[in-house]
Amino acid sequence: MSRWVVRRLLTSLLTLFFITTITFALARVVPSNPAVVYIGPLARPAEIARVTKELGLDRPLYVQYVDYMRDLVHGNWGTSLATKQPVLGGIASRLPATLELILVAMAMAVAVGIPLGVLAAHRKGKAADTGARVGAVVGISMPVFWLGLLLQVLASQWLNILPPTSRQSLDVAVLHPVTKITGFLLVDALVTGDWSGLQDAATHILLPAITLAAYPAALVTRMTRAAMLDVLGQDYVRTARTFGLGERLVLWQLALRNAIPSTLTVVGLSLAYLLTGSFFVEIVFDWPGIGQYATNALLNLDYPAIMGITILGATAFLVINFVVDVLQARLDPRVRLQ
Amino acid sequence: MSVTIDSPDQLPAPYRSTGATSRAFRVLRRKPSALLGGGIIVFIAFVALAAPVLAPYPAQGRGLADVPARDLPPSSLHWFGTDHLGRDVLSRVIFGARPALGVSLAVVVLAVLVGVPLGMIAGYRGGWLDEALMRVTDIFLAFPPLLLAMVISALLGASLLHAAIALVISWWPWYARLARTVTQSLKHEPFIDAARVFGVREPLILTRHVLRNATTPILVQATVDAGTVILAVGALAFLGLAAQPPTPDWGLMVADGRTTVITEWWISMFPGLAIFTLVLGFNLLGDVLRDVLDPRSAGR
User: Phi and psi dihedrals of A80, rounded to 5?
Assistant: First the structure.
């Protein structure tokens, strides 16, 4: 196990090294001139020459590369061309909003997907099963950005409430802001006992989280159903039933416990999806997180910010995969890490 | 997102047998969801081909503005309403079927053309070549879905062509892995050994024997992926990283109506519905195809 962890960490580091190298190469071979991006569209030749020197873009490529990698390791991820602020700080200040959204969405997906999958497997071929399967294929086929807009339209037309975009109401943010501790609004409001702030944050996160949760909920439902069908057909389940154990006990304890490892894999995959899925939800709901930062960086060719986002995304993806593998070995003794 | 298969024994038995394609067609005809999915795809393909005839305002479908008639709600004149430039949304949605189908088809075909030969050669030869290919695909697959495509498309300069290139770059590793796994499972089959013993050269073994048996699983995977690729193209366009105005692109049209969606909902809703329908078609068909080829998952 510990040997596996060490090997896995080393290969992950190597992968990250290659990813940063590829991103660096991509950012430097493109036709756009970063100096022009830095100054703006009205750049004069003299200014371009000055900024090119200032940003160190006139040095040989390998020198720039070595410098970039050294700074990266020391926590200096460069300065955003658009905001003129350090990239790492920009990312860090927006990270809690995105993480909060992703975690709430994931919790929703699991809370809906697992019971639905168990129910569908239990009532295989019946109406509940058909409903769950149709729901799952619909959830998988929905463009996330469209679903977000659809929910806004429905909420405004039918429920007669305007969709709360952004993270909190203006009056809450300005007049009695939630004391910042962790940056997670829900947590901060709860810890400080700020009930109106908590309510405000909860109503604002509802629609974006549902939007983001649709796809993973569908995946979790599917996988739970398939894994439960596998398990329910096995001898030990039949034995438990012949011994007269209650169906509820068989289903939710004996069977589900062995279906969980497969579901876990899908949860890991979904988390990776949520990383980029949150980009779209943040744009649709005006959510001040990483996604907005990333989209602006991409559209403005703000290459230091683009590289920062890429490295962050790849790192998060590697970490998620790592954690899923470890958890799976923990939950299922047949899985051996080697 | 596809499932990674890393060793031959994870592959279901039918992936190694012939005749799966004909069996697939027989089962497909009895599955209503496959019929529905196939029907949706055929319908949208027909709409794409006949767009100039079907669209009530073909010139507006291609991008001609009619500013005085802007932001009109759905009516008998404009079934889907008009957009911010007064263009008929129905005509735009009809013309939008062309880039949607064309780009996703091109992406899947190109990704297969790049990935499958590499995967087959690596799987057949083994050794350092195989190891090298696997490490390269590892790097590509270490990016969260879509992120690599977003970055490449942005850096190349956002356009439909560059988005397609970006998607091919981020998709081929999946096919390389699949082709490698299938090849590894096939290469010790008696009929391949026999061909080798009789002195058949490697290129011929690969094309005549391996490729022919690998076609079905690759086709199925391509169908399953087509829906995901359409979503990806739409997503890139929504961010402004793919087609540019005035291209009638569904993702771009959704983005166009985004800020006014509460009052002029039709501008975003109909193109989004079109994306959803086409993706649903491919997913319905793909699910049944997968079940047919992998009896272990049948009926699930």
Answer: -65, 135
Report domain extents, chain A.
Answer: 91-289
| B239 to A279: CB separation less than 8 angstroms, yes or no | yes
A 208-227 residues with CB below 8 A of B? 225-226
Residues 227-286 of A with CB under 8 A from B: 229, 269, 272-273, 275-276, 279-280, 283-284
Question: CATH number of A91-289: 1.10.3720.10, 1.20.58.340, 3.30.10.20, 3.40.630.30?
Answer: 1.10.3720.10
pLDDT at A224: 92
| Residue A57, SS3 per DSSP | coil
Residues of A in contact with B138 (CB under 8 A): 11, 15
- In chain B, which ranges are E strands? none
What are the tens digits of pLDDT across the range A223-264?
999 999 988 888 888 888 888 887 888 888 888 888 888 888
CATH, domain range B57-280: 1.10.3720.10
Vertex A179 angle, CA A178 and A185, to 5°: 55
Amino acid at B58: P
- Enter the ipTM: 0.88
Contacts of B254 in chain A (CB under 8 A): 143, 145-146, 149
pTM for this entry: 0.88
Mark yes or no for CB contact A30/B283 under 8 Å: no
Q: What percent of chain B is helix, strand and coil (3-state, nearest 5)?
A: 75, 0, 25
pLDDT tens digit sequence for B241-288: 988 888 899 999 999 988 888 888 899 999 999 999 999 999 999 888
Which residue did the predictor score with more confidence, B23 or B276? B276
What's the whole-number mean pLDDT along residues A148-162? 82
| Cβ-contact A286, A173 below 8 angstroms | no
| Domains in chain B: boundaries | 57-280
Whether residues A316 and B144 touch (CB distance < 8 A) is answered with yes
